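Field log, afternoon session.

UNIT: design team B
ACTIVITY: writing a sequence onto a fixed backbone
BACKBONE:
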Protein backbone atom coordinates (compact mmCIF):
# COMPACT_ATOMS: atom_id res chain seq x y z
CA UNK A 1 0.00 0.00 0.00
CA UNK A 2 2.91 2.38 0.67
CA UNK A 3 4.04 2.19 -2.97
CA UNK A 4 0.66 3.61 -4.00
CA UNK A 5 0.71 6.53 -1.54
CA UNK A 6 0.71 9.13 -4.32
CA UNK A 7 -2.15 7.37 -6.11
CA UNK A 8 -4.19 7.20 -2.93
CA UNK A 9 -3.57 10.91 -2.34
CA UNK A 10 -4.75 11.76 -5.87
CA UNK A 11 -7.79 9.51 -5.59
CA UNK A 12 -8.80 11.14 -2.31
CA UNK A 13 -8.74 14.60 -3.91
CA UNK A 14 -10.88 13.81 -6.96
CA UNK A 15 -14.07 15.84 -6.84
CA UNK A 16 -17.36 14.50 -8.21
CA UNK A 17 -17.67 17.88 -10.00
CA UNK A 18 -14.75 16.79 -12.19
CA UNK A 19 -16.64 13.70 -13.36
CA UNK A 20 -17.86 14.94 -16.75
CA UNK A 21 -19.86 11.80 -17.43
CA UNK A 22 -22.12 12.35 -14.40
CA UNK A 23 -25.27 14.40 -14.99
CA UNK A 24 -25.64 16.26 -11.70
CA UNK A 25 -29.37 16.88 -12.12
CA UNK A 26 -30.10 13.42 -13.49
CA UNK A 27 -32.19 10.66 -11.93
CA UNK A 28 -30.18 7.72 -10.61
CA UNK A 29 -31.20 4.47 -8.98
CA UNK A 30 -28.68 2.63 -6.82
CA UNK A 31 -29.10 -0.90 -5.61
CA UNK A 32 -27.17 -2.28 -2.72
CA UNK A 33 -24.59 -4.90 -3.51
CA UNK A 34 -22.42 -7.05 -1.31
CA UNK A 35 -19.59 -6.72 -3.80
CA UNK A 36 -16.47 -5.17 -2.28
CA UNK A 37 -14.65 -2.56 -4.37
CA UNK A 38 -10.95 -3.32 -4.69
CA UNK A 39 -9.42 0.11 -4.06
CA UNK A 40 -5.89 -1.26 -4.38
CA UNK A 41 -6.67 -2.35 -7.95
CA UNK A 42 -8.17 1.06 -8.75
CA UNK A 43 -5.11 2.88 -7.42
CA UNK A 44 -2.76 0.48 -9.23
CA UNK A 45 -4.52 1.35 -12.50
CA UNK A 46 -3.90 5.10 -12.13
CA UNK A 47 -1.41 6.73 -14.44
CA UNK A 48 0.37 9.37 -12.36
CA UNK A 49 2.31 12.28 -13.79
Amino acid sequence: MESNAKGIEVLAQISPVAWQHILLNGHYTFQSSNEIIDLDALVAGLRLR
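LOG NOTE: Residues 5-13 form the longest helix (9 residues).
NEXT ACTIVITY: expression trials, pending approval
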